[in-house]
Every structure is written in structure tokens, then in C-alpha cells.
Amino acid sequence: MRVLIVEDEADLAETVRRAFVEDGFSVDVAADGESGLFNAQSWNYDAIVLDLMLPRMHGFDVLKKIRAKSTTPVLILTARDGLEDKLKGLNSGADDYLTKPFKLAELLARVRRWSGAPPESPRPASSWATSRSTRRRGSSGRRGSRSS
Fold it and tell me: How far apart are CA 77 and CA 68, in angstroms?
């Protein structure tokens, strides 16, 4: 099963990528909205994990453009935890919405639900915590990268 992670925070992207790989997924990572959209429109994915606060193109804009051409399940993974943001994401075509901080086991379970992967994994329920004060970092200028 193949997953695209669109996340500009490098440490978080690597943690999520590693969790999916250990769970048997093939994973591509994009560090900004434009690269994420390019990957989403260029390859077939079983699921997309999409941050909202991205450099080069906001996550809501990425989602809108993905939905114009694809029904690939999209899970928004973001620090934006307000009800209005959640409703906007779900009403814009996201299949699910998970806020940071989150448990990796929960993220994997939500994505596994769409991918046809087995419903359970032996991974421990580790978590990823982000500080809202350090959440936004400038663009590192990285383009999307592909890894398996």
C-alpha cells in the first residue's frame, strides 16, 4: 500500500514516514504544498496525509485541487484544532481530520482503514507532540522527496 505524506516539519515527516514503513507501507514525502500536489497528481496513492499550514501552497488549496481530479482518501493532520477548521476540512473533501499532538497508532489505524491493510499492528502507541509556538518554521526550500 502506498501513502503520500505532505508535511513541512522535517522531524515529524520522518517520524510518520518511518511508522508507515515499519507498518508495511510504501511512503513518499513532500515538504510543501506544491510538491505534495505534484506527487498526488502524478502517482496513485492508497491514502494521503496532508498538513494544512504548508509553504508554497496551503493545505486547503492542495485538498481542493486533489479533489478536483481524485477520490484518494485524504487525512488532514494539523495543529489547527478549532471546530471551524475541522468542519472546513471535512466539508472540503477530507475523509478524516486528526489534530496534533496525536498518537502514531491512531494515525496508522485511520489510514489502514482505507488501504485494505490488516486492521491491527503490533506497534506501540507512541505519540508525537508539537509545540504551537515552534510549529511554523520557514520553508527549507526542499522539494518533495520520494522514499520507500
Answer: 20
All residues at 6 or more sequence positions from 103 whose CB lies less than 8 Å from its CB, including other chains:
125, 126, 127
Q: What is the pTM (predicted TM-score) of this model?
A: 0.81
pLDDT for residue 38 is more than 50 = yes
Whether the ω angle into residue 122 lies within 30 degrees of 0, i.e. cis, is no
Domain 2-116: homologous superfamily in CATH: Response regulator (3.40.50.2300)
Task: Count each helix (H run) and each strand (E run) in the chain, helices first.
Answer: 5, 8
Determine the pLDDT at residue 3.
97
Query: How many residues are given for the chain?
Result: 148
- What backbone torsions phi and psi does residue 44 show, to the nearest 5 degrees? -90, 130
SS3 96: strand
Q: Which residues contact 88 (CB under 8 A, 6 or more apart)?
A: 60
Closest listed residue to residue 13, CA positions, set 47, 50, 43: 50
Cα(107)–Cα(77) distance, rounded to whole angstroms? 9
- Dump pLDDT digits (tens) for 82-134: 999 999 999 999 999 999 999 999 999 999 988 666 666 444 444 444 333 33
